[in-house]
Amino acid sequence: NAGVTQTPKFRVLKTGQSMTLLCAQDMNHEYMYWYRQDPGMGLRLIHYSVGEGTTAKGEVPDGYNVSRLKKQNFLLGLESAAPSQTSVYFCATREVVYTFGSGTRLTVV
Amino acid sequence: AQSVTQLGSHVSVSEGALVLLRCNYSSSVPPYLFWYVQYPNQGLQLLLKYTTGATLVKGINGFEAEFKKSETSFHLTKPSAHMSDAAEYFCAVTLASGNTPLVFGKGTRLSVIA
Questions:
Q1: In 3-state terms, chain A is what percent helix, strand and coil (to 5)?
Q2: How far apart are CA B6 and CA B105, in angstroms?
Q3: What is the pLDDT of residues B17-60, one digit of tens each?
Protein backbone atom coordinates (compact mmCIF):
# COMPACT_ATOMS: atom_id res chain seq x y z
CA ASN A 1 0.00 0.00 0.00
CA ALA A 2 2.24 2.74 -1.34
CA GLY A 3 -0.35 5.54 -1.11
CA VAL A 4 1.45 8.63 -2.38
CA THR A 5 4.96 8.28 -3.77
CA GLN A 6 7.21 11.22 -4.55
CA THR A 7 10.36 11.06 -6.65
CA PRO A 8 13.09 12.08 -6.23
CA LYS A 9 13.50 12.37 -2.46
CA PHE A 10 16.49 14.72 -2.67
CA ARG A 11 17.91 16.91 -5.42
CA VAL A 12 20.45 19.68 -5.78
CA LEU A 13 20.06 21.99 -8.76
CA LYS A 14 22.09 24.85 -10.08
CA THR A 15 20.35 28.15 -10.71
CA GLY A 16 18.70 28.10 -14.11
CA GLN A 17 18.42 24.32 -14.39
CA SER A 18 15.08 22.62 -14.87
CA MET A 19 13.58 19.57 -13.27
CA THR A 20 10.32 17.70 -12.78
CA LEU A 21 9.02 16.28 -9.53
CA LEU A 22 6.73 13.29 -9.85
CA CYS A 23 3.84 12.44 -7.57
CA ALA A 24 2.17 9.06 -8.07
CA GLN A 25 -0.88 7.75 -6.20
CA ASP A 26 -2.54 4.35 -6.15
CA MET A 27 -5.77 5.34 -4.36
CA ASN A 28 -7.74 6.52 -7.39
CA HIS A 29 -8.30 9.95 -5.82
CA GLU A 30 -9.51 12.78 -8.04
CA TYR A 31 -7.85 15.60 -6.13
CA MET A 32 -4.10 16.11 -6.02
CA TYR A 33 -2.02 18.96 -4.62
CA TRP A 34 1.52 20.32 -4.54
CA TYR A 35 2.67 22.21 -1.45
CA ARG A 36 5.98 23.71 -0.46
CA GLN A 37 7.19 23.89 3.13
CA ASP A 38 9.54 26.58 4.34
CA PRO A 39 10.67 27.27 7.94
CA GLY A 40 8.14 29.43 9.77
CA MET A 41 5.78 29.51 6.80
CA GLY A 42 3.90 26.25 7.17
CA LEU A 43 2.78 24.57 3.96
CA ARG A 44 1.73 26.75 1.07
CA LEU A 45 -0.23 25.53 -1.93
CA ILE A 46 1.54 25.78 -5.29
CA HIS A 47 -0.90 24.16 -7.71
CA TYR A 48 -3.64 21.60 -7.51
CA SER A 49 -5.82 19.39 -9.71
CA VAL A 50 -9.42 18.31 -9.32
CA GLY A 51 -9.19 15.58 -11.92
CA GLU A 52 -7.33 14.20 -14.90
CA GLY A 53 -6.51 16.94 -17.38
CA THR A 54 -7.25 19.80 -14.96
CA THR A 55 -4.94 22.10 -13.01
CA ALA A 56 -5.38 25.28 -11.00
CA LYS A 57 -3.12 27.82 -9.30
CA GLY A 58 -2.66 27.94 -5.59
CA GLU A 59 -1.18 30.56 -3.30
CA VAL A 60 2.40 30.53 -4.67
CA PRO A 61 2.33 29.35 -8.31
CA ASP A 62 4.99 31.60 -9.85
CA GLY A 63 7.99 29.75 -11.27
CA TYR A 64 6.19 26.40 -11.37
CA ASN A 65 4.13 24.49 -13.91
CA VAL A 66 2.10 21.33 -13.47
CA SER A 67 0.46 18.63 -15.54
CA ARG A 68 -2.07 15.90 -14.80
CA LEU A 69 -2.15 13.82 -17.98
CA LYS A 70 -2.99 10.65 -16.08
CA LYS A 71 -5.22 10.44 -13.04
CA GLN A 72 -2.59 8.73 -10.93
CA ASN A 73 0.26 11.17 -11.66
CA PHE A 74 0.72 14.86 -10.88
CA LEU A 75 3.93 16.46 -12.13
CA LEU A 76 5.49 19.66 -10.82
CA GLY A 77 7.99 21.38 -13.08
CA LEU A 78 10.58 24.05 -12.47
CA GLU A 79 11.62 25.53 -15.81
CA SER A 80 14.44 27.72 -14.52
CA ALA A 81 15.26 27.03 -10.88
CA ALA A 82 16.03 29.90 -8.50
CA PRO A 83 17.52 29.83 -4.98
CA SER A 84 14.12 31.02 -3.66
CA GLN A 85 12.73 27.65 -4.74
CA THR A 86 14.91 25.83 -2.22
CA SER A 87 12.28 24.08 -0.14
CA VAL A 88 10.68 20.80 0.80
CA TYR A 89 7.90 19.87 -1.59
CA PHE A 90 4.96 17.73 -0.58
CA CYS A 91 2.37 16.12 -2.78
CA ALA A 92 -1.02 15.17 -1.39
CA THR A 93 -4.21 13.49 -2.52
CA ARG A 94 -7.66 13.74 -1.00
CA GLU A 95 -10.97 12.13 -0.44
CA VAL A 96 -12.15 13.57 2.90
CA VAL A 97 -8.74 13.11 4.46
CA TYR A 98 -5.57 14.27 2.81
CA THR A 99 -2.76 11.76 2.32
CA PHE A 100 0.73 13.19 1.97
CA GLY A 101 3.83 11.88 0.33
CA SER A 102 7.13 11.78 2.19
CA GLY A 103 8.46 14.91 0.49
CA THR A 104 11.20 16.04 -1.88
CA ARG A 105 14.00 18.15 -0.44
CA LEU A 106 15.22 20.49 -3.18
CA THR A 107 18.23 22.76 -2.89
CA VAL A 108 18.98 25.34 -5.58
CA VAL A 109 22.51 26.70 -5.49
CA ALA B 1 -11.20 32.66 1.93
CA GLN B 2 -10.40 30.54 4.91
CA SER B 3 -7.29 31.00 7.05
CA VAL B 4 -5.63 29.56 10.14
CA THR B 5 -3.67 31.24 12.91
CA GLN B 6 -1.53 29.19 15.25
CA LEU B 7 -0.58 31.11 18.36
CA GLY B 8 3.03 30.51 19.34
CA SER B 9 5.64 29.30 16.88
CA HIS B 10 7.39 27.42 19.69
CA VAL B 11 5.92 25.87 22.82
CA SER B 12 8.00 24.20 25.50
CA VAL B 13 6.56 21.94 28.21
CA SER B 14 7.95 19.63 30.85
CA GLU B 15 7.49 15.90 30.52
CA GLY B 16 4.20 14.96 32.16
CA ALA B 17 2.74 18.47 31.83
CA LEU B 18 -0.33 19.49 29.87
CA VAL B 19 0.17 20.21 26.19
CA LEU B 20 -1.97 23.01 24.73
CA LEU B 21 -1.43 24.14 21.14
CA ARG B 22 -3.72 26.92 19.98
CA CYS B 23 -5.44 27.21 16.61
CA ASN B 24 -7.98 29.77 15.46
CA TYR B 25 -9.58 29.67 12.06
CA SER B 26 -11.48 31.99 9.79
CA SER B 27 -14.15 30.57 7.52
CA SER B 28 -17.39 31.94 6.15
CA VAL B 29 -18.98 28.50 5.89
CA PRO B 30 -18.77 25.35 8.04
CA PRO B 31 -15.17 24.18 8.14
CA TYR B 32 -13.42 20.87 8.27
CA LEU B 33 -10.48 21.14 10.67
CA PHE B 34 -7.36 19.03 10.99
CA TRP B 35 -4.24 18.68 13.10
CA TYR B 36 -1.13 17.16 11.57
CA VAL B 37 2.17 16.24 13.21
CA GLN B 38 5.55 16.26 11.52
CA TYR B 39 8.56 14.58 13.10
CA PRO B 40 12.02 15.73 12.00
CA ASN B 41 12.78 14.97 8.36
CA GLN B 42 9.49 13.17 7.87
CA GLY B 43 6.19 13.81 6.15
CA LEU B 44 2.89 14.86 7.70
CA GLN B 45 0.81 12.47 9.77
CA LEU B 46 -2.84 13.10 10.56
CA LEU B 47 -3.46 13.41 14.30
CA LEU B 48 -7.18 14.07 14.24
CA LYS B 49 -9.95 15.74 12.28
CA TYR B 50 -13.28 17.44 12.78
CA THR B 51 -15.85 17.22 10.03
CA THR B 52 -19.32 16.98 11.56
CA GLY B 53 -20.92 15.62 14.71
CA ALA B 54 -19.21 15.54 18.10
CA THR B 55 -17.18 18.68 18.71
CA LEU B 56 -14.62 16.93 20.92
CA VAL B 57 -12.52 14.71 18.72
CA LYS B 58 -9.93 12.22 19.84
CA GLY B 59 -6.88 11.38 17.83
CA ILE B 60 -3.80 9.25 17.95
CA ASN B 61 -1.15 9.29 20.67
CA GLY B 62 -3.56 10.62 23.31
CA PHE B 63 -4.27 13.96 21.62
CA GLU B 64 -7.68 15.54 21.39
CA ALA B 65 -9.15 18.79 20.12
CA GLU B 66 -12.42 20.62 20.60
CA PHE B 67 -14.21 22.52 17.87
CA LYS B 68 -15.67 25.72 19.34
CA LYS B 69 -17.67 27.56 16.73
CA SER B 70 -18.37 30.58 18.94
CA GLU B 71 -14.64 31.07 19.50
CA THR B 72 -13.58 29.92 16.00
CA SER B 73 -11.03 27.71 17.71
CA PHE B 74 -9.72 24.17 17.43
CA HIS B 75 -7.07 23.88 20.13
CA LEU B 76 -5.05 20.68 20.49
CA THR B 77 -4.47 19.19 23.93
CA LYS B 78 -2.82 16.24 25.61
CA PRO B 79 -3.01 15.72 29.38
CA SER B 80 0.56 14.52 29.86
CA ALA B 81 3.45 15.26 27.52
CA HIS B 82 5.90 12.56 26.55
CA MET B 83 9.35 13.05 25.13
CA SER B 84 8.21 11.42 21.91
CA ASP B 85 5.66 14.23 21.39
CA ALA B 86 8.44 16.63 20.42
CA ALA B 87 7.62 17.58 16.83
CA GLU B 88 6.04 20.29 14.72
CA TYR B 89 2.27 20.53 14.71
CA PHE B 90 0.12 22.06 11.98
CA CYS B 91 -3.50 23.10 12.15
CA ALA B 92 -5.34 23.17 8.82
CA VAL B 93 -8.78 24.11 7.51
CA THR B 94 -10.84 23.42 4.45
CA LEU B 95 -14.49 23.99 3.63
CA ALA B 96 -17.15 21.40 4.24
CA SER B 97 -18.42 21.80 0.70
CA GLY B 98 -16.70 22.01 -2.65
CA ASN B 99 -13.11 21.26 -3.52
CA THR B 100 -11.34 24.05 -1.64
CA PRO B 101 -7.74 23.06 -0.91
CA LEU B 102 -6.41 22.61 2.61
CA VAL B 103 -4.99 25.78 4.14
CA PHE B 104 -2.32 25.37 6.81
CA GLY B 105 -1.22 27.43 9.75
CA LYS B 106 2.46 28.27 10.09
CA GLY B 107 3.06 25.53 12.60
CA THR B 108 4.01 25.21 16.26
CA ARG B 109 7.17 23.45 17.31
CA LEU B 110 6.67 21.53 20.55
CA SER B 111 9.66 20.85 22.76
CA VAL B 112 9.39 18.49 25.73
CA ILE B 113 11.85 18.97 28.58
CA ALA B 114 12.85 16.04 30.76
A1: 5, 55, 45
A2: 6
A3: 999 999 999 987 889 999 999 998 888 999 999 998 899 999 99
Asked whether the beta carbons of B28 and B82 are under 8 A apart, the reply is no
Q: Do B104 and A43 touch (CB under 8 A)?
A: yes
Q: Which residue type does A42 have?
A: G
The bridge status of strand A31-38 relative to strand A42-49 is: antiparallel
Number of neighbours of residue B88 by Cβ within 10 angstroms: 21
pLDDT tops 80 at residue B99: no
Looking only at the bridges linking them, the beta strands covering A31-38 and A19-25 are: unpaired
CB contact under 8 A, A98 and B104: no
- Which residue of A42, A58, A92 is in closest CB contact with B106? A42
Residue B62, classed as helix, strand or coil, is helix
CA B21 to each of CA A25, A43, A71, B64, B79: distance values in angstroms, whole numbers, following the listed order? 32, 18, 37, 11, 12
Judge: A90–B101 Cβ closer than 8 Å, yes or no: no
